[in-house]
Amino acid sequence: MRPGHRGDDTVQDHNSLDTLTSHAEALERHGWEGALLGTGWGRPDTFTVATALTARTTTFQPLIAIRPGYWRPAQFTAAAATLDHLSGGRVLVNIVSGKDDLAAYGEAEEEQSARGERTSEFLQIVRRPWTEEHVSFTGRHLSVDHATLGPQPVVRGARRNPRLYFGGASAAAERMAATQADVQLFWGEPFDGVAERIDRLKRLSAELGREHAPLEFGLRVTTFVRDTTEQAWADAEAKVAELAERGPREGWLPRDRPAAVGQQRLHDLAERGDVLDENLYTAPGRFGGGGAGTTWLVGSAEDVARSLRRYQALGVTHFVLSDTPYLREIERQGSQLLPLLRPAAVAL
Length: 348
Prior knowledge:
Blueprint: H1 17-29, E1 34-37, H2 46-55, E2 61-66, H3 73-87, E3 92-95, H4 112-131, E4 135-138, E5 143-147, E6 163-167, H5 171-180, E7 183-186, H6 191-208, E8 216-226, H7 229-246, H8 261-269, E9 275-276, E10 280-281, H9 284-287, E11 296-300, H10 301-314, E12 316-322, H11 326-336, E13 345-347
Parallel strand pairs: 1-2, 2-3, 3-6, 6-7, 7-8, 8-11, 8-12, 12-13
Antiparallel strand pairs: 4-5, 9-10, 10-11
Helix pairs in contact: 1-11, 2-3, 3-4, 4-5, 5-6
């Protein structure tokens, strides 16, 4: 959990165990299923945070972001299975294939195609020891030989292992998602863009062949909620004006800098206007947005819920929503927005 990436100041002890636990407990109280724990070199280790928070909560599900390269596949598979076993089946995993400071943890810088190949091999390997014994795999980048786990993931109904979320908009990433991921996460794009990607991913799944359950779809977006539509837009515009005045901040990718395909898609939306569909605000990406902070769904709880329901009608069944400061928005959106969304799956 990182303050600052939507224009907020970093607060003291924001990554302390007490602060993070207070967030996780608030999530439980206010009806959220869990939280995305974002990864990046220099940020807290996501598995360590997830382990600490599951030990202090009862229903909180950590969506643990991890990067192939930082983790070897057998090491990750064992860690995920162990935490899933200890937490009673609460582990969710977000596989991140994007570029990071690889040299800082001993990896060589790689071209995007090589990172994609390695991620594909990683995804092929990590599922198998959760349900098989003596797994062997030899790839161009990764391999294991007779890998067998001790503690196994929790089996519950159709669940056999932690659900694997995956983001990425390049052609190679979509092929990986279509065949190997459980949930494809989209950034906050307009309805037509999400519909087009869902249709393409379904066709790819059929064309390429898929061994797993049908691919599901999720939306990762900032939800900027206030008591009224007018107040939401006044506050959103004031916040963007503040971002413009402050200048670039950590996590922001300027539009003229090469970016991942998904991030570039978000930047390109600004050419279509500051507000798309009913309430998708693209202006934040010009001044300080990055990732989920590039576009915001702005409005009253009813406005934002109506937009999320339209995404749901397109086939989106997982929602990873957030705004900062986290604790305030956990409470506000948990009491105002979530009751309008159920029974859709939600996470912060």
